[in-house]
From TrEMBL:
Domain Amine oxidase: 59-369, 495-551
Pfam family, one: Amino_oxidase
Species of origin: Nannochloropsis gaditana
Protein name: Amine oxidase
InterPro entries recorded: Amino_oxidase, FAD/NAD-bd_sf, Zeta_carotene_desat/Oxidored
Signal peptide (from-to): none
Domain of life: Eukaryota
Length: 576
């Protein structure tokens, strides 16, 4: 009898423990990195002037400029191109006998874009955004049916329901692939980067014994849209992306799109806010080199190189927020001037010598580190204007991902996305469809390169893509006799490579300061961070980090940094 009571007692305790562990909890999707100097003043004291150059008017540079300008710094933004925005840059193009705003390419804003969400709120632009539902996948492989992927319900039931709803996944495949879930559900940012950056994601998947169907249906789509070579991309980068975009929280896959072009929705309000704060924004102005001195940073424009007696401009701090190629070029051309005390033949003081020697060594170290970093393969974005709209099963799907249909990786129906394209479609009965062509290795130009006659390239490219589109992606386009009316092809080779083994060379925003270049900080999506980040969110987060380097150096309180949690959910049930 006593043994029965003991068994029942232990059973009750076990049930109570399980009930406690499995109760839904409201775990926040982010954490906040608080200022390192919370006692310092929020703004520069009245009468104090500090000049900061932000080199680069993309998302990283605009983010840094906003933080510094709001604190009273005199900020100048130099952007080499004619337009601001970086990967959200929007250009005005004449198509179909009217003017269209054409962006760099389609983007989505995810629930874990916490810094970007804060900026949106401060700019008052949330009304330009709307939700985008399940992701639609179309596979070339005949073994796989089209798939709609969306997280529903609390964790971990949201993951179980994906398998239940899937026309391709089976529980036996999930059971056979359980080994890899440890790195996903018990994700730890520091551990993952220290352990898996030397492996490619495909090598990690093979080592973990992931079932082929799981890899093809759940992971290949993400690999396809990284703009990197999927066979070489770092396992750590991919595990971090899975954490950010899906596993860190049941709502992590929630995303939004804009109702209008990115210039109208984001960049123009951002620029207006900066100008209201006194920021001087100059387009078509490219930094050629930096000269670090004991009193500041002397900046020379690229077009000034070679001119005699160029004065340049002097700043107290510089935030390098150009793309990776720009940063490498600027660092290679930059120099450190010895303090004035070193210009005489007498031995320098210990202090001045240390400052000069340390800064010179820091610059050399930065050049060395960045020399190992690479650019991802070229890619193209093709926005096509057709005479009619889809009538098939995807006629209302704004985005389709096509993970195994190279060279096409993503298709976006802009007449369902943005008001300008929607108005044209209503008036003409046509459609505006954008094709993303990543890691471009094919050729369609017959050796012409960029020497197409006006309007010729869009027709040649469409004929090149037509067999893939009509073969298995959207066969109704050919069945309905779609005719190409006009189009625009953008060529890019500016996205950072995240191939395996590069993380150890990737600096952080504060690396120059830590090495001894105290007047320089970095910002951009090619950097590393101490927290999970990627793509646009990495750009704006490192922009804020770069600003925080300047703020702390000047004794001004740093800005809080909301970031995705660095740890996976484990087995705790998370409320949706």
């Amino acid at each position: 009898m006593s043994s029965t009571k003991a068994f029942l007692s232990r059973s009750v305790i076990l049930v109570a423990i399980l009930a406690y562990l499995l109760r839904p909890i409201n775990r926040p999707s982010f954490t906040v990195i608080e200022p390192l100097n919370p006692q310092d003043p929020i703004n520069l004291p009245s009468g104090t002037s500090r000049r900061v150059l932000v080199a680069g008017g993309g998302l990283a540079g605009l983010s840094a400029a906003l933080e510094l300008a709001e604190r009273g710094f005199q900020v100048s933004v130099w952007e080499a191109s004619p337009v601001l925005g970086g990967r959200l840059a929007t250009r005005t193009v004449q198509l179909c006998n009217q003017t269209f705003a054409i962006e760099h390419g389609f983007h989505a804003w995810f629930a874990n874009y916490h810094v970007f969400a804060d900026i949106r709120k401060r700019l008052g632009i949330d009304h330009y955004f709307r939700p985008w539902g399940a992701v639609q996948f179309i596979f070339k492989d005949p073994r796989y049916k089209p798939e709609a992927l969306e997280s529903q319900g609390p964790y971990p039931w949201n993951l179980i329901s994906i398998v239940l709803r899937s026309p391709n996944l089976r529980f036996i495949d999930a059971i056979l692939s359980t080994r890899h879930v440890v790195d996903l559900l018990w994700f730890d940012h520091k551990t993952v980067w220290g352990k898996y950056d030397e492996q490619s994601f495909s090598e990690w998947a093979r080592a973990m014994g992931i079932a082929r169907v799981f890899y093809d249906v759940l992971y290949a789509p993400t690999l396809s849209v990284t703009v990197n070579e999927r066979q070489n991309i770092s396992a750590a980068e991919m595990l971090s992306m899975n954490h950010i975009y899906f596993l860190s929280h049941p709502r992590a896959d929630r995303r939004e799109v804009t109702r209008v072009d990115y210039e109208t929705a984001i960049i123009q309000p951002w620029e207006m806010r900066l100008q209201a704060l006194g920021v001087k924004i100059e387009r078509g102005k490219r930094v050629g080199r930096l000269n670090f001195t004991e009193t500041g940073v002397h900046v020379v424009e690229e077009e000034e190189e070679g001119e005699e007696g160029v004065a340049g401009s002097d700043f107290d701090h510089v935030v390098l927020a150009t793309n990776l190629q720009g940063v490498k070029s600027i660092l290679d051309a930059s120099s450190v001037s010895p303090p004035s005390s070193l210009s005489s033949p007498s031995p320098p003081s210990t202090a001045s010598s240390f400052s000069y020697v340390t800064s010179t060594a820091a610059l050399a170290q930065l050049r060395h580190q960045t020399s190992f970093l690479e650019i991802a393969p070229p890619y193209k974005v093709f926005r096509a204007y057709f005479d009619r709209q889809l009538r098939g099963p995807y006629n209302q799907e704004i985005v389709l991902e096509t993970p195994d249909s190279s060279p096409i990786n993503l298709i976006a129906q802009y007449h369902l996305l943005e008001e300008e394209s929607a108005e044209w479609a209503r008036r003409t009965g046509g459609s505006v469809i954008e094709f993303h062509l990543y890691t471009w290795e094919g050729g369609y130009d017959g050796g012409k390169g960029d020497k197409f006659a006006a309007g010729e390239e869009v027709r040649v490219l469409w004929e090149f893509l037509r067999p893939t589109v009509c073969g298995h992606l959207l066969p109704e386009m050919c069945a309905q006799n779609f005719t190409l009316v006009d189009g625009y092809v953008a060529h890019y080779e500016d996205f950072p490579s995240f191939k395996k083994g590069l993380h150890k060379y990737r600096p952080r925003s504060q690396t120059p300061h830590q090495l001894g270049l105290t007047r320089l900080s970095l910002a951009g999506d090619w950097l590393s961070t101490s927290f999970p980040s990627a793509l646009m969110e990495r750009a704006v987060a490192t922009g804020r980090e770069a600003a925080n380097v300047v703020l702390q150096e000047e004794g001004i309180r740093q800005a809080p940094l909301p970031v995705t949690t660095s740890h996976g959910p484990g087995l705790r049930v998370l409320a949706s």
